[in-house]
Each structure stands twice: as structure tokens, then as C-alpha cells.
Amino acid sequence: MLGKALSDSFYAAEIKLRAERKMGELLAKREPPKGTRGQLKGSTDGRISGGHIMIPPENNEPTLAELGLTKRESAQAQKLATRG
């Protein structure tokens, strides 16, 4: 009975490891976030009031937070994926 429980436990751990490795592979293929650098529009000479208008880049990739992941979890999964 104990042998079966250990076997099941090892099997579950193997499935979890494979899933984390696959997640790391998928995360590594994602397009990196673009940020807002160089996205300003508007006057820089001060003739038009209101200052600069920030136009965020279009990026349809979900954030790590939207995926329910922390930066640490993402980094660990990607590291695991590179170890193969």
C-alpha cells in the first residue's frame, strides 16, 4: 500500500515538473513587453499647452499578473525549460 502511494506521488511530481517545463518554454517564446519609451506625441517646444500625450503601445500579450504568475515563478519555469 505504501509503495503504491509513493509511486503515485512520484508520478504526480513528474507531471508537475513536465507542466512547469512546458510553461517555461511558452513563456520564453512570448513577445517581451514594449513599455512606453519613445511613445510621446505632442509639442516639445512649449507652444501648445497641455504637455505631452502618452500613447501606450499595442500589446495583446497578457501580463504575468493576468496569467496568475509572479516574476519569480516565470523565471523559475523558464530556467527549468532551458535545463531540458
What is this entry, summarized?
The chain is built from three helices and two strands. The chain is mainly α and 84 residues long.
Q: Can you offer a commentary on this structure?
A:
The protein is 54% helix and 5% strand. The protein is built from 3 helices and 2 strands; from the N terminus they run αββαα. The chain has a two-stranded antiparallel ribbon. With 84 residues, it is mostly helical. It starts with a helix and ends with a helix. The chain has one domain.
What percent of residues are in strands? under 5%
Question: How many separate domains make up the residues?
Answer: 1
Biggest sheet record: 2 strands, antiparallel
In DSSP terms, counting alpha (H) and pi (I) runs of 4 or more, how many helices?
Answer: 3
Major sheet strand order: 1-2
Basic shape: elongated
Which radius of gyration do the C-alpha atoms yield? Answer: 22 Å
Descriptors for this entry?
mainly alpha; 3 helices; 84 residues; two-stranded antiparallel ribbon
Layout of helices and strands:
Layout: H1 2-29, E1 40-41, E2 53-54, H2 64-67, H3 71-83
Antiparallel strand pairs: 1-2
Helix pairs in contact: 1-3
